[in-house]
TrEMBL record:
UniProt-listed PANTHER family: TRANSCRIPTIONAL REGULATORY PROTEIN DCUR-RELATED, TRANSCRIPTIONAL REGULATORY PROTEIN DPIA
Gene3D superfamilies cross-referenced by the UniProt entry: 3.40.50.2300
Residue intervals of the Response regulatory domain: 10-126
UniProt name for this protein: Transcriptional regulatory protein
Gene Ontology terms for molecular function: DNA binding; DNA-binding transcription factor activity; phosphorelay response regulator activity
Length: 231
């Protein structure tokens, strides 16, 4: 690399479906500030490639033929690998989401999803690095890159959560809303195991980012705020 050039963030794509892995790898390669370090088709190969390639980020499917993605994360943490992960899965169970986040997942994306959403999450990950003590030049460049969609238009990226809110807890709230039903802050708090006032802040943030909508349900007392995913 010549002086003055920046190093892109390296991404390892882990998915046993060759077609899906190819699509995800192509998308990652199109996002300015990122490059594909490689692809792995099972958990053991992912562990070996992380050791060899030292990627910054895993795009990690959960359902792998030899072990699930959560086990991959746990083994990486046990041996001290400093690599982040965006977990992609069709699994919607709240306990499963919590296990992924406890295992060190930076974000949790539920299938099926729009590829523009995956692109947004990747760029959001780079922005998140700026607030976690990992603010190097490659993170800055990736975070502030203009990311075009398939028509060449800029894809709007939501701002990072306000001070006091974390991406990990935000993904828990997103997962709770992903079923499509309207949820009150109380119901969402029960699903995520978080305090109601805290959940309310996350829900209002998602409304502000246009990831969720809110309506008032009128009854005998104060109107109840009900939240629903925009997906």
């Amino acid at each position: 690399m010549r002086p003055g050039e920046r190093a892109d963030l390296a991404v390892l794509v882990v998915d046993d479906d060759f077609m899906v892995a190819s699509i995800h790898a192509e998308l990652v390669g199109d996002v300015d500030g990122f490059r594909v370090a490689g692809t792995a088709v099972n958990g053991q190969q992912a562990l070996d490639m992380v050791a060899d390639l030292k990627p910054d980020l895993l795009l990690l499917d959960v359902h792998l033929p030899d072990m699930n993605g959560i086990d991959v994360l746990r083994r990486l943490r046990q041996r001290g690998d400093d690599v982040d992960a965006i977990v992609v899965t069709a699994e919607r169970d709240a306990d499963f989401v919590k296990a992924a986040l406890r295992g060190g997942a930076a974000q949790y994306l539920i299938k099926p999803f729009d590829l523009d959403e995956l692109r947004t999450r990747i760029v959001r990950y780079a922005r998140g690095r700026l607030g976690t003590g990992k603010a190097d030049q490659q993170a800055v460049d990736a975070a502030f890159s203009v990311t075009p969609d398939s028509r060449g238009a800029a894809v709007p990226v939501a701002p990072p959560p306000p001070k006091g809110l974390s991406n990990e807890s935000l993904d828990l709230v997103r997962a709770a809303l992903s079923g499509g039903d309207e949820l009150s802050a109380t119901t969402c708090a029960e699903a995520t195991g978080m305090a109601r006032p805290t959940v309310r802040r996350y829900l209002e943030y998602l409304v502000e980012c246009r990831e969720a909508r809110v309506r008032l349900k009128y009854g005998g007392g104060r109107p109840e705020r009900l939240y629903q995913s925009m997906d």
